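Predict the 3D structure for this chain.
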Amino acid sequence: MSIVSLGDQELVKLYVNGNEKAFELLITRHKDRVYRFILSKIKDPELANDYFQDTFMKVIVTLKGGNYNEEGKFLPWVLRIAHNLIIDGFRKNKKVRFLSETRSASEDYSVFSRLSNEDLNVLQITCKEELETQVVRFLDELPAAQKEIIYQRLYQDLSFKEIAEMEDISINTALGRMRYALINLRKLMDKHQVVTSY
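Done. Predicted structure below.
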């Protein structure tokens, strides 16, 4: 059987065992998807290329270190690495914002405006811009999975489908995490007596 026809898992095993050609094939197979994913978040081709290279450097280090979880799928795993590098980079550069580049010019724009009305009705949350800075400081108090989904949904504007694919979970699980994250944020706001409008 030709090496080109092997699946990702087989190529990963070959690479870990010293076959450099196997990794070249993995990059060739997934480079376009990974780059497009990064560019969709960064919006800067030059910077996206830097993150692309950093992503595959981390992939190499992880694989060579024997830390790859074979239960996961290779592409979602690589996309998660890229996503985490982007988040880390934004945090370091203090560029993380809840508002997207194409945000509404309206002053009534809400940090949770990307969530569906159904999500909002469950918690009856409508946050104004003045509230956003207060909400940010509560994020670190959330459980890791809930904090992560807030970052993914609001900072990176990922769909629940994309999040589910990256995390290897069902869409319902992703929705559940967001729901509990919002519930816990609400509790923290109540605890600290943060006033919100209904």
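The two ends are 63 Å apart (CA to CA).
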